[in-house]
Amino acid sequence: MAPKRGVKAPVPAAKKKPEKVTNPLFEKRPKQFGIGGALPPKRDLTRFVKWPKTVQIQRKKRILKQRLKVPPALNQFTKTLDKNLGQSLTQSFFYLYFSDALLINLLDTYTLLLNYMFYCEVIVLCTISIKPQRSLNAFIMSPVATSLFKILLKYRPEDKAEKKERLLKRAQAETEGKTVEAKKPIVVKYGLNHVTYLIEQNKAQLVVIAHDVDPIELVVWLPALCRKMEIPYCIVKGKARLGSIVHKKTASVLCLTSVKNEDKLEFSRVLEAIKANFNDKFDEYRKKWGGGIMGSKSQAKTKAKERLLAKEAAQRMS
Question: Which Gene Ontology CC terms are recorded (predicted)?
Answer without folding.
Answer: cytosolic large ribosomal subunit
